[in-house]
Specification:
Number of strands: 4
Order of helices and strands: HHHHEEHEEH
Shape: elongated
Largest sheet: 2 strands, antiparallel
Helix content: 40-55%
Strand order of the largest sheet: 1-2
Length: 145
């Protein structure tokens, strides 16, 4: 018969779990890191003219007329992207009043109504999800060292 045995030192396992529990009491640094990464990813969406999944936005009339980029006339919306992290979560967004109509689309305007095409710029892509996993993995690896 061929076999093997594994001996686990309970004291070392407990020590590792204590370190991990202590490190996990404040996840703000992890969420700060994730927030910064998602800010960069969102800015990339503006620069590439795509939604978070990489689908190109429909070109705006202004961008067509000026040979410019959609949603990047003054860069005010793109420059307003911020993240806010706590020890429990992270939020990424903007306080620009007109952001929602660009994100979700719809009718807007006073007097003459204009239909705005949705051009989502906020969201989490598959690549972002992988990077978030990597950030947590790196954190856990460091916590257990």
């Amino acid at each position: 018969m061929v076999g093997y045995s594994i001996k686990i030192d309970g004291k070392e396992v407990q020590k590792t779990f204590r370190k991990l529990r202590k490190k996990a009491e404040n996840l703000k640094p992890v969420f700060d890191n994730i927030g910064s990464m998602l800010e960069s990813s969102t800015i990339h969406n503006f620069e590439a003219g795509t939604n978070p999944d990489g689908k190109p936005w429909k070109h705006s009339l202004r961008a067509k007329k000026t040979d410019g980029k959609t949603l990047v006339d003054t860069s005010r919306l793109m420059d307003s992207i911020v993240s806010r992290a706590s020890s429990e979560s992270v939020e990424v967004g903007t306080n620009a009043i007109y952001a929602a109509i660009h994100q979700m689309g719809g009718k807007c305007g006073k007097g003459r109504k204009v239909n705005i095409t949705a051009r989502p710029f906020l969201g989490v892509s598959a690549d972002d999800k992988r990077e978030i996993s990597d950030i947590f993995r790196f954190f856990l690896k460091g916590a257990m060292a």
